[in-house]
């Protein structure tokens, strides 16, 4: 049990996490972990999500400031246009990059969870530990394809169900609380920040000098999960939030990447998972399903 805790804490050798998209919009720095970049052992959902990048088409939905779910549409022959100022901005970005709002692949963007810049080091460390723990709990990545097929379960790696795997279930599953630094990191995440943690890798970034940070979960209807982090150098305004979030949503849907780049990212994610699993197998007492 203790050996597994050391693995989760990142004390054993490990490979670097895959790099997400980084860019600036005005005074905001944005980090986007694209759902489509996650390795998927299910060939059907893996191909389905990649096809949307090939065809440059996706839909998106989001939670607005009031907590309401917004389902925009750019319109078409059989659809009435439904839009907001934010969705219009996303549509403009999509069109400018050759993307359309057709097809069945849809991304869902949650409302924001606000974090303080001083929380981000603990948040990043805890999230990466959670990613490692989820990899070990899922078992050998090399056999996941056959296990997924046997269970007829799509997207076992990063489904909406796994998004709910959460910190509170992690302790019940593998009893890490007395060994890992995960819980000490989480204890420093006040204001509900631990609720933003996801089992996806997040890069280290220096958030000092920023005024406020918001984190959003991104899921798609193929069962993949990603994340949007927006760090504002000045207190945000309605205009700065719209500009940053529009670019982030577009990036989460695949604007700015290509099918070969997605395949490279997926291969890196798979290699990373294999490395974590290999470390686990080489460590006596490593716990898995």
Secondary structure elements and pairings:
Elements: H1 2-8, E1 21-25, E2 28-33, H2 43-55, E3 59-63, E4 69-70, H3 85-96, E5 106-109, E6 113-115, H4 120-138, H5 144-151, H6 160-163, H7 166-174, H8 182-187, E7 212-220, E8 225-232, H9 238-252, H10 259-281
Parallel strand pairs: 3-5
Antiparallel strand pairs: 1-2, 2-8, 3-4, 5-7, 6-7, 7-8
Helix pairs in contact: 3-9, 4-7
Explained architecture:
Helices cover 40% and strands 15% of the residues. It has helices at residues 2-8, 43-55, 85-96, 120-138, 144-151, 160-163, 166-174, 182-187, 238-252, 259-281; strands spanning 21-25, 28-33, 59-63, 69-70, 106-109, 113-115, 212-220, 225-232. Strands 1, 2, 3, 4, 5, 6, 7 and 8 form an 8-stranded mixed beta sheet that branches. Helix 4 packs across helix 7.
């Amino acid at each position: 049990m203790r050996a597994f805790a050391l693995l989760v804490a990142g004390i054993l050798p490990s490979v670097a996490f895959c790099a997400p998209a980084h860019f600036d919009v005005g005074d905001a720095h944005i980090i986007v972990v694209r759902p489509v970049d996650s390795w998927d052992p299910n060939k059907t959902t893996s191909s389905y999500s990649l096809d949307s990048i090939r065809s440059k088409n996706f839909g998106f939905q989001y939670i607005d400031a009031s907590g309401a779910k917004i389902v925009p549409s750019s319109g078409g022959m059989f659809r009435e246009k439904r839009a907001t100022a934010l969705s219009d901005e996303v549509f403009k970005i999509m069109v400018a990059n050759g993307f359309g709002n057709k097809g069945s692949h849809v991304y869902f963007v949650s409302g924001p969870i606000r974090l303080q810049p001083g929380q981000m080091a603990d948040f990043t460390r805890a999230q990466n530990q959670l990613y490692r723990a989820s990899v070990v709990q899922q078992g050998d990545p090399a056999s996941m394809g056959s296990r997924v097929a046997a269970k007829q379960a799509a997207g076992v790696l990063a489904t909406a169900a796994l998004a709910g795997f959460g910190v509170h279930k992690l302790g019940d599953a593998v009893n890490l609380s007395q060994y890992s630094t995960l819980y000490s990191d989480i204890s420093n995440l006040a204001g509900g920040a631990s609720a933003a943690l996801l089992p996806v890798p997040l890069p280290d970034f220096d958030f000092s000098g920023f005024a406020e940070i918001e984190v959003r979960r991104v899921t798609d209807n193929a069962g993949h999960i990603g994340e949007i982090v927006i760090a504002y150098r000045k207190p945000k305004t309605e205009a700065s939030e719209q500009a940053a979030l529009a670019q982030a949503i577009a990036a989460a849907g695949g604007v700015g990447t290509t099918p070969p780049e997605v395949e490279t990212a997926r291969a890196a994610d798979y290699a990373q998972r294999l490395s974590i699993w290999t470390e686990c197998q080489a460590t006596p007492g490593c716990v898995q399903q």
